[in-house]
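Moderator note: this is an archived Q&A kept for reference. The question asked for a predicted structure of one protein chain; the sequence and the answer are reproduced below.
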Amino acid sequence: MNDFLSFGYSADKKDEEKKESVSMRSSGCLQEGVNDFGDGAIGSFVRQLSTRKYNHLYTQINHYSTIAHRTPDTELYTRRMGATAPAPEAYACLVDNTTWDLVEDIEKLREHLDIPEWQVFGGSWGSTLALAYSQSHPEKVTGIVLRGIFLLRKKEIDWFYEGGAAAIFPDAWEPFRDLIPENERGSFIDAYWKRLKSDDLETQYAAARAWTKWEMMTAHFIPNEEHIKKGDDDKFSLAIARIENHYFVNRGFLASDSFLLDNIEKIRHINTIIVQGRYDVCCPMMSAWDLHKAWPEADFKVVLDAGHSANEPGITAELVAGNEKLKNIIQRNGP
């Protein structure tokens, strides 16, 4: 569920090149900033769980044909302040790290760049954050593209982390399960949290590897070995596992289990495309279907031969098509 959130906007082509930084309200571990270059319609992808996730997290510009059409690059990055050899906590800092801190940071970025409004693109956890941001600032959003819907409800977390998805990937599930003693298996989320915040670094790393490998092994329709190998990197795994688990233990810091569905009325008028892999195990189609039923005005695209990853050909094609559609709507309507 570690994925991306992005924003796109139309800029004045006469804008001079600029490179600036902005200080956002953040933890003692991280500092945020932004670089903005050039002209045209901007597209940036903030990968993984959040803008506060990694020591070296930064925006990666993805050249989808629609977003990267004559684009400048906006770079949102986080960087640990202090020592060059930081403590492991710095790679997965949880201070001031909530959904609403991230929404606030995103809005500060928009204000800093003097962007009147922009398009929001989010997949997996990015779809959660995209909905939360858009519902908080609907007047700033021109369009939304969502992929691999995750509404952060208990039944979704239970499906993936409490044994439901094990019916499809029992071989991948067993190492995740077996790290936890039988007497603690009433809640794997809580059992992993206990280990991920342990004072013993090796205990943290072992839990992080098991957590991340489980996710990596189930993210593609056909398992991707290169993707799975990322789970062997202790620092990468610790960042994913600690922060994902932090959000799940706290139910996304949302006011209720159905919070994002309950607030659809705030964004019903916004042009939106929902893309979902039929065989997505990480974020199963029940969530996309519930969102579709609550929001029938949004275009709903089901990719029949895909799982969770945005890199699967059918999903990539629908995401590009969706962004093209929103771009054309903006061009037709004018500034």
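Archived answer notes: The CA atoms of residues 49 and 244 lie 7 Å apart.
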